[in-house]
Write a structure and sequence with these properties.
The complex is a heterodimer of chains A (about 120) and B (about 130). Chain A has helices at about 20-40, 55-70, 85-90, 105-115, and strands at about 5-10, 10-15, 45, 75-80, 100. Chain A has one domain: Transcription Regulator spoIIAA (2-Layer Sandwich). Chain A is built from 4 helices and 5 strands, in the order ββαβαβαβα. The N and C termini of chain A lie far apart (about 40 Å). In chain A, a hairpin with a 2-residue loop joins strand 1 and strand 2 (about 10-15). Chain A has a 5-stranded mixed β-sheet with strand order 1-2-3-4-5. Helices cover about 50% and strands about 15% of the residues of chain A. By secondary structure, chain A is of the alpha/beta class. In chain B, helix 1 (about 15-30) packs antiparallel against helix 2 and helix 2 packs antiparallel against helix 4 (about 105-110). Chain B has helices at about 15-30, 35-55, 85-90, 105-110, and strands at about 5-10, 60-65, 70-80, 115-120, 125-130. In chain B, strands 1-2-3-5-4 form a 5-stranded antiparallel β-sheet, with helices on one face. Chain B has a single domain (about 5-130), classed as Heat Shock Protein 90 (2-Layer Sandwich). The chains are: A alpha/beta (about 120), B alpha+beta (about 130). The interface of A and B includes residues 21, 54 and 92 of A.
Amino acid sequence: MSIPILKERDVLIACIQTAVTDDELIELRDMLAATIGKSRSRGVVIDVGALDVLDSFATRTLRGIAYTAKLRGAPTVVVGIQPDVAIAMVQLGLTLEDIPTALDLEDGIELLRRRKRS
Amino acid sequence: MTDGEASVAIARERDIVVARQKGRELAASAGFGATDQTLIATAISEVARNIVVYAGSGEVLIRIVSEGARRGVLVVASDRGPGIADTSLAMRDGYSTAKSLGVGLPGARRLMDDFTLESEIGRGTTVTMRKWVR
């Protein structure tokens, strides 16, 4: 089961589902890297709202996806980190470093559009 | 096996998801709130992931435990993998030999109340951790 990539004007959107595996995340990274070029996208939003756990491996993979997309010219925003997941990530010592985050899909797209204008 | 216990064989990534879902269910029935359920599920995810990455296969046992009036969950993650040469190094933040962020074991310790790591080269590794309902 691969993660679908949706297109909203010049932004690509990927919604990650609950029981995602690392292999699917790696497939998403590869698909995004290619799709950014094909669709000439200027940004990516990754929605992790369905995830009830973000452990260190998933976080590392997520960072890899965001950096890959950024190198392809499409800054990435991670949206939808659940309250308990955020608390657990901090206790675990995990960060997304300089990857921007937003509350939800709408805010994420808004953030990308604002950045592009400035 | 009783209602308050689950044993999950760990061999593939999918099993990690099963283990943390079982952990969440048992944590809920032990009386943990939503945030603590997530902390426990995350700690289980880390130790189960270590089994897949370093040992290939193993087992995660989750059990509701009580001590006097307090209730909690016990998680035992065991494998017969290569073992860890330096367990104190493995517990240090930022130390990693594989594709991780080096926060797995020390991070799991921070999520739980007690945490012990026993390992013997060539015989395997056992992580035992507990969290109590506050």
